[in-house]
Write a structure and sequence with these properties.
Layout (H helix, E strand, L loop, with lengths): L1 H31 L4 H6 L5 E2 L6 E2 L5 E5 L2 E5 L2 H14 L1
Antiparallel strand pairs: 1-2, 3-4
Length: about 90
């Protein structure tokens, strides 16, 4: 079956061309170094993690509580209160 083989090779060539184009497009994008929004956040201040809700916050603008483990930072008073209440209950 010469025809089916020919169709197979044409499809294969199309797939390869598409993959190559996607690859080259990715390389070009990498060279241009488009600054994504996530990259801009990473290059900023060192972030602290709210131990209650897991939100990342900037320590300088966050609520802080110091205990035996060190300083903990919170996104809101609600999270800070929950943490303090939990610490009080466990000790
Ligand atoms: Zn929080």
């Amino acid at each position: 079956m010469v025809l089916t083989r020919f169709v197979f090779y044409v499809l294969l060539a199309l797939l390869l061309a598409r993959a190559l184009r996607a690859f080259l497009g990715g390389v070009a994008q990498g060279l241009h170094g488009k600054p994504g929004p996530s990259r801009r956040i990473e290059t900023g201040v060192r972030m602290a993690r709210d131990p209650v809700c897991g939100t990342f916050i900037v320590p300088s603008s966050a609520l802080a509580v110091r205990d035996a483990d060190g300083v903990h930072h919170f996104c809101s008073a609600a999270c800070r209160n929950a943490f303090v209440a939990r610490a009080r209950r466990s000790s």
